[in-house]
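step: validate -> pass
step: tokenize input -> pass
step: predict -> running
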Amino acid sequence: MDPGSLRDVLLVEAFEELDHEGTLLAHEERRRASRRARAVLGAAQPSWEPPGNGAPAAATPAARSEVEERFLVERARLLREGLARDLPGSSRLLSLTAAPAPPAWLVFGVTALLGLGADRLEMSQRLNLLSFSLLALLAWNLVAYPLRVAVSVACRIGLPRPAGLERVGVWLALQRPWATWRHRAGGLSAAIHGRFLESWGRVAAPLVGARMRCLLDLGAAGLALGLLGGIYLRGLVFEYRAGWESTFLDAEQVHVLLSVLLAPGAWLLGRGVPEPALLDAMGGPDAGVPAAEWIHLFAATTLALAIVPRLGLAAWSAHRARLLGASLCLERDAFPSLARALATDRGRGVRVDLESYSYGLSDEAEAGLRAMLAEVFGGRAELGELERVPYGGDTGGRRSGSRVIVFNAGQCPEREVHGVHLAEALAAAAPGERLLVVVDESVLRLRCGGGGAERLAERRRVWEEVLGERGIEALYCELSERGGSDVFAAARAAMWPAPVAEASG
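step: predict -> pass
step: emit ->
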């Protein structure tokens, strides 16, 4: 997915996730965008559904994912156009996140100017061979390249890449001026903007890291070029003499140091660093020789170590950033509202049997259960009639599809009754079928009133203990209340034998 489409999808996701009441993005607008997106893509009868009940043959997972992605992109585009019309601030937010880093030419130019004035030669017209700016620049690059190679090798053998640059880049993106305004503003709109920025930063972290590496390499090359340019410009109008001074180093040690750091320049120019005897004669505040040859030696070394390689690395990072920008991946299961948006076109050929164990659901609770299951299994799934199983009753033999069992949290679970019933349900499940256990807390919460949080938590721990013995996680919710994305995500995660996201991969 390209960055522009991904930003549209994540912005709409933030609205749908937080604007539950449809205050800023009306529910009818969302439904209308879904219908129009299906019409545009010709997806009124999706071709990726599993066979059965007259449905077409299933497509490959890759083809299905592509169709779903195109639907999400088209739907987000339609909704984003409405948001741009009704909420101009959303367009500004998108445009700002489109360029979370300064332009490359600006970074290169600013660092070159910094280098131009970083190592101003002394008024005595003396070039100190142990100049901190020059030696630190060369030493920095000599250390940086082996580290870059080590990280690349580690990534190739399967170790995770250090995420320091990605974290810095994302932090900078989230702390830009519009993010500061967001923190001050407060309210629903600010919360939506905050979620969008955080989601974008998380998904685009590899892209941000590649861009940061490109800018750092350009900055290093610009700093080195500016430093050399400053020396040569001053050398046109002043005669500089080269020498050195040190409190701790003698001529022999200075020779070893310069021979290592200036080796690339000496190889390019075809001459080595002068012997210790000559260096010894150059030491002291009043000694020195014409500096031109030394300036050329430093320049050749800097070109070989700090300019050409850095420009090459910057070009490689820019190329990688372009590749990442053209193929950003969106983990749809990490965003419940996106999975819910796709629910309408999923589920053909899926049958789900419903039962409540020793529990009579109210009309509101059953409606809430069916609405949630339509999102989890798909809007086209066949949800059977709700069967009430009496206390101590059996499963009724092997079922024809997946199964949902609803328990009442107001009942204290018993291993010899509820546990046995679950064991029979697991034994009756056919390969590929799913089981979802729902513990409805509606009655218990009503019975406890506003001060029953501790009792609810204690009862949930008892249910977890009994269900855990069978290797099952339950969905704890109030079916009489329409669940949001948290309930939806919890239902997908509680599926037996594996969460929906893992099983569908």
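step: describe -> The chain has 21 helices and eight strands.
step: cleanup -> pass
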